[in-house]
């Protein structure tokens, strides 16, 4: 079990809140605490499941209570339109979130209406939830739709293959024109980002769409460093060539076996 002791006060508060608010149906911890990579600078990802139709009201009550019971230095609330059935906010419990000289204390609070898509978790993608409050046994494990994930992986591989020549042209054209900002943007967007998607499809297909985060835990040893080397250095042309050569290698491995891209 991950050591969450620096959030003990918050975890106890969540348990108490769940017991006292009948619309708080379940609370669990997600994120790196249960998937791996959690460290002294990780936030605490909290999922709250509310009585259907009450998620926004529960969220507002939790935010008011958190500001009352804790020293909350700053709150980032995602726009109301972000989720159709809930709200999310980041609560900074330390005065300077960017200060890495001391342990981080940030709460990623997501409140949503109780529904299968929120209470049933694919442990391959999101880890096994750490239950804080679940008296009804609502939170469970279920794999996400395999057909939908397979379609997404197929499309990503096919798009990478189709885009490959044009993508390298965009990078090289910007380099030739001496436009460093555009060249670096295209290198990242059309070179490195699709490369990482292909690496994920090849090595951790269940988390194929997780982007550039968690590379040290999701990819084979040394791969995160290889990707990092493509992002820095004086010779962008050489880094771009290496990126597209790696894309070519992965496409050669993935394209013949698209039907076999299962989790």
Give a short synopsis of this structure:
The chain is of the alpha/beta class and 263 residues long. The protein has two domains: 5-141, 2-Layer Sandwich (Beta Polymerase, domain 2), CATH 3.30.460.10; 146-260. It has helices at 8-20, 32-35, 55-69, 116-119, 123-126, 146-176, 180-203, 215-218, 223-229, 236-254, and strands at residues 24-30, 44-50, 74-77, 86-92, 106-113, 120-121, 130-133, 140-141.
The CATH architecture of the largest domain is 2-Layer Sandwich
Which fold name corresponds to the CATH topology of the largest domain?
Answer: Beta Polymerase, domain 2
Distance between the termini: 25 Å
On the 0 to 100 scale, the average pLDDT is: 96
User: Helix-strand pattern, N to C?
Assistant: HEHEHEEEHEHEEHHHHH
CATH class of the largest domain: Alpha Beta
Number of strands: 8
Let me know the largest β-sheet.
Answer: 6 strands, mixed
Summed up, the helix count is: 10
| Rg (CA only) | 21 Å
How much strand?
Answer: 15-25%
Helix content estimate: 40-55%
Summed up, the domain count is 2
Q: Structural class per helix/strand content?
A: alpha/beta
Structure explained in plain terms:
The strands form two sheets. A six-stranded mixed β-sheet has the order 3-4-5-2-1-7. Strands 6-8 form a two-stranded parallel sheet. With 263 residues, the chain is of the alpha/beta class. α6 runs antiparallel to α10. The longest helix has 31 residues. It contains ten helices and eight strands. 48% of the residues lie in helices and 16% in strands. The chain folds into two domains: 137 residues, Beta Polymerase, domain 2, CATH 3.30.460; 115 residues.
């Amino acid at each position: 079990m991950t050591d969450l002791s620096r959030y003990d006060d918050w975890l106890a508060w969540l348990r108490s809140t769940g017991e006292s608010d009948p619309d708080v149906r379940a609370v669990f911890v997600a994120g790196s605490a249960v998937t791996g990579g959690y460290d002294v600078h990780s936030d605490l990802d909290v999922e709250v499941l509310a009585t259907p139709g009450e998620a926004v009201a529960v969220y507002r009550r939790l935010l008011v209570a958190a500001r009352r019971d804790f020293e909350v230095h700053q709150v980032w609330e995602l726009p109301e339109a972000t989720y159709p059935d809930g709200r999310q906010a980041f609560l900074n419990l330390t005065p300077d979130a960017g200060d890495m000289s001391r342990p981080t204390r940030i709460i990623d609070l997501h409140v949503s209406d109780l529904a299968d898509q929120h209470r049933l978790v694919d442990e391959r993608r999101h880890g096994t939830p750490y239950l804080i409050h679940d008296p009804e046994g609502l939170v469970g494990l279920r794999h996400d739709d395999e057909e939908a994930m397979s379609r997404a992986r197929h499309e990503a591989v096919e798009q990478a293959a189709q885009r490959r020549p044009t993508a390298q042209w965009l990078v090289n054209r910007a380099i030739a024109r001496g436009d460093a900002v555009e060249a670096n943007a295209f290198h990242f967007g059309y070179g490195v980002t699709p490369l990482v998607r292909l690496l994920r499809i090849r090595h951790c297909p269940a988390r194929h769409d997780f982007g550039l985060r968690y590379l040290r835990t999701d990819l084979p040893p040394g791969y995160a460093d290889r990707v990092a080397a493509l992002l820095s250095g004086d010779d962008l042309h050489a880094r771009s060539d290496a990126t597209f050569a790696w894309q070519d290698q992965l496409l050669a491995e993935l394209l013949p076996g698209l039907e076999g891209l299962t989790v």
